[in-house]
Predict the structure of Multidrug DMT transporter permease.
Amino acid sequence: MNAAQEKDALLWGMVGVTLFAATLPMTRLAVGTTELPQLSPWFVTFGRAAVAGLLSIGYLLWQHRLGRLNVPRRAEWPLLAVTAFGVIVGFPLFLALALRHVPSTHGAVVTALLPLSTAVLGALWYRQRPSNGFWACAVVGSTLVLGFMVWRAGGVYLGAANIYLLIAMTTGALGYIGGARLTPRLGAEQVICWVLVCCLPLTLPMAWWFAPSAVSAIHASSWMGFAYVSLFSMWIGFFAWYRALALGAVRVSQLQLVQPFLSLLFAVPLAGERLDGTTLAFALAVIATVYAGKKMPIHTAGKPA
């Protein structure tokens, strides 16, 4: 990857991370809490994919009219299925289930674990060999984020919520890499659109099944959260993120270390949380780690596996 490609990858990656950062507080708004539940996590998961899928039909038709439509080949359908499992069902569903029980600040732990998972899968898939210094920066950065989240939550939450977060982290990383593998030929925008359209036979009926029976009983803020995760988290954010991962999966994955702190910034106006000096200190430490990791060498052994 040359300097220009690296710059583009980091730029697109930062756009995607920024859009994804609001996913946690917006999902929390959508599903509510155990004391005051709002939209079902199942409806939020399948509903947001259904909305984005319908928008994707229009986008693909537009690309067809322009003569730019890339149809998935037969050999690419397994990768589409892997991507769908990760980003359409796995990550959003288990994240939403977890955020019904824990605050978005604790849920941000999953975004701290995603860089390592994405980097490992990316290195295997693209036959890249990150240096020991790269892995050291990734481990240090993830440790900083995890330590901060544990401190901020006043202790580690035990029970099903952490299991949900672990599953969300694993499936999310798998979906990121699967989509990035398809992006060079199909294009970043068309990858997520094809995945969403192919999932409509599942997402539309499931969204209808889990739709709230009393729409008026759902707060306006919950619908706002649902609208955001449908448009930005499930659709537009992937336009930028898959483009970035296709340019440099291992390197770009480290940008996710900044995502938990961006989530905290977005949570301030939404949840009324206060940012203190310790929070800012941890944020600066993580950003410094990401910058150091960016300078570490990455070697490519050959073509993607």
Observations:
- The two ends are 17 Å apart (CA to CA).
- The first helix runs from residue 3 to 21.
